[in-house]
Amino acid sequence: MLVIDRFEGDYAVCECEDGEFVRIARKLIASGAKEGDTLDPWEGGFRTNEPKTREARSRIRRKVRQLFSDDAGGDQTT
After folding, report:
1. N or C: which end of the chain has fewer CB within 10 A?
2. Are 54 and 21 within 8 A, CB to CB?
3. Domain of residue 31, CATH code
């Protein structure tokens, strides 16, 4: 599984499950793919995996809400 971190020219910089980054030619990625999308190998290229992408984005939203909630227990100065 790969996650698109960013685009640089004709390449997508993707993060692998082990935290390493690889560059993949944009022409090998299904059109419409965007930063944050999860990719799966498919027919000599890559296509987006919508269920995994939605799951990852939902997990990130929960973490951000938790981080910024009043219940986070952070040091608050009054």
Report:
1. C
2. no
3. 2.40.50
Task: State the pTM of this model.
Answer: 0.77
**DSSP at 72:** G
Instruction: List the structure tokens of 63.
Output: 């973490």
Sheet holding 38-42, edge to edge: 21-25, 11-16, 2-8, 38-42, 45-48
Range of the domain at 63: 2-70
Give pLDDT tens digits for 20-53.
999 999 999 999 999 999 999 999 999 999 999 9
Residue 75 in domain: no
Which residue blocks in the chain are alpha helix, DSSP H?
50-68
Closest CA to 11 of 1, 23, 20: 23
Query: What integer best gives the mean pLDDT of the chain?
Result: 90
